[in-house]
Design goal:
The complex is a heterodimer of chains A (110) and B (144).
Chain A: E1 2-5, E2 8-11, H1 26-35, H2 42-58, H3 64-75, H4 82-88, H5 93-100
Chain B: H1 3-6, E1 15-20, H2 29-40, E2 46-51, E3 88-91, H3 92-97, E4 109-112, E5 118-121, E6 123-126, H4 128-136, E7 140-143
Classes of the chains: A mainly alpha (110), B alpha/beta (144).
Chain lengths: 110, 144
């Protein structure tokens, strides 16, 4: 299974997560988001970029609880809440945002 | 995970200890243990980790795995604090037998949300005797 972008083939697993993280780019993120019925805006990008930085540092995609806690710390109480994240990513922030960010499915995602 | 493992009959918090005895690479034990810890952390239990024998190598600083073609997963230990896993017991004798000291290990910390995010150390180097009593104090021990 694969996404097509500018003639390139980008492999993904059965759930749509990228097989090779290094193939991610912002253009692809927009396509991944569309599959999730999400129009990317600045607030979506903020979370997606946050996740990419988190993965870069820790080599894991955070569980939702951890994501909320980390966002609360860096971006304040309003954005560090389940409610805010579900507004942006209605079908599960950790799963959807991680997929759009090109990361594997979060460890500890149940 | 069954309901029984999530909480006891009265829903009380149980003490879970994950014991790591193997080197980080060469077998899948270390990585699998870490994944189980991260998943188990969602159940709001009292989680701690023990590093004994070659398990102490899992926490060494500056791991570089490029030449063996395996992902260096050691940065994930730095995320444990975010998962409220803040007790990593390392056996002193196991370090010494391998020519290691506390200074060879990663500087792992957790941030105390209730105390203005103060950084506190996660690694506790304990003697074999102390490790015995830590282990006997647990409700559940999972060995890797």
């Amino acid at each position: 299974m694969a996404y097509e972008l500018n003639g390139a083939t980008i492999e993904h697993d059965e759930e749509g997560y990228l097989t090779d993280l290094s193939q991610w780019n912002e253009e692809l993120a927009v396509i991944l988001a569309k599959d999730e019925k999400i129009e990317m805006n600045d607030e979506h990008w903020e979370v997606v970029n946050f996740l990419r930085n988190y993965y870069d540092e820790y080599q894991i995609a955070p569980a939702i609880r951890v994501l909320v806690k980390a966002l609360k710390k860096t971006m304040g109480k309003e954005k560090g809440s389940n409610k805010y994240l579900y507004t942006l990513f209605p079908y599960g922030p950790a799963k959807q945002a991680c997929k759009i960010a090109g990361l594997p499915k979060p460890t500890g995602c149940i | 995970m069954s309901d029984e493992m999530q909480e006891g009959p009265q829903g009380e918090v149980k003490k879970f200890m994950y014991v790591n005895r193997k080197a980080p690479y060469g077998t899948i034990y270390a990585l699998e243990a870490l994944e189980v810890v991260l998943i188990g952390a969602a159940f709001d239990q009292d989680v701690s980790l023990a590093f004994i024998d070659d398990g102490v190598f899992q926490l060494t600083d500056g791991q570089k795995t490029d030449d063996i073609g395996i992902k260096n997963f050691s940065p994930a230990f730095r995320a444990l604090g975010d998962y409220d896993v803040t007790k990593l017991y390392v056996e002193k004798e196991s370090l010494e037998e391998r020519g290691l000291t506390r200074d060879d290990l990663m500087d792992l910390t957790w941030e105390d949300e209730d105390n203005d995010w103060e950084e506190k150390p996660s690694i506790r180097v304990v003697s074999r005797e102390e490790m015995k009593s830590v282990l006997s104090d647990q409700d559940v021990i999972l060995s890797f």
